[in-house]
């Protein structure tokens, strides 16, 4: 905070090479918002639109132990080096070949580090250091967002194909029914995400066009709009495929439910037959109290069968209501 305060309060002197300064702020706090707002006369609503709860994966450089092992280790942190596969890759190609001998891909630790990487590798063609605009400063963040949406579209395609192939392996057992309900819930969730993403991309194009890109840079922005349009077309196609899968899964759920009801009906029928056999026998045994000469092994034990068997047969034939 002290360094930021000193930089903002010190007079700005431009030189031949230095045409301006760019501030990239990560993790906004109340003190930073107050300092930037008062020094640069920024509307508080500008910061309010950037404050939100972002549920994302932790950075690559952070290491977490899920089984509580950190309690058994020393308090001195042990750095675990994490390297990207084959050195990583750029989210989008540059307009010219970079000759820097440093990192040839963004660090992927955080969006903050990625922005610094892209700005130091190459200035965007839409950026005029003598008269920078908010739209030109948003060029690289928008390119990163579009690249992430492309990955999201590929993930949607994988999910759709996985759901389509899962239908072939479904069974009418209880485990298959649970899996079917889980797939149906996942299908509806992905359809909702696809609709939200389509709305967000449409709103993004509308917002960028409302800022009226300068004529010299229209071709660059049209290229970005073309990428977004390609992702929108893919997303709309995937939404239609999601819509086509929902009736299939719903009908399959109904089919499994009907088969389960048939199986349950057969089980109830078997129980009914058992009841038709044992209820008359139990009634006769309670009627004779099964004592004295009617006890098993006594001379009059045959009377129990002489009464119980005809009564049971009459129950099966529908006669002789008790």
Automatic annotation (TrEMBL):
UniProt-recorded Gene Ontology molecular function terms: metal ion transmembrane transporter activity
Q: Where does this polypeptide localize?
A: Membrane
Segments passing through the bilayer: 268-289, 301-318
UniProt xrefs under Pfam families: CorA (PF01544)
Q: Name one GO cellular component term.
A: membrane
Predominant localisation class: membrane
Question: Could you tell me the keywords of this UniProt record?
Answer: Membrane, Transmembrane, Transmembrane helix
Which InterPro entries does this one have?
Answer: CorA_TM1_TM2 (IPR045863), MgTranspt_CorA/ZnTranspt_ZntB (IPR002523)
- How is the protein disposed in the membrane? Multi-pass membrane protein
**What protein name does the entry list?**
Mg2+ transporter protein
Q: Which organism is it from?
A: Trichoglossum hirsutum
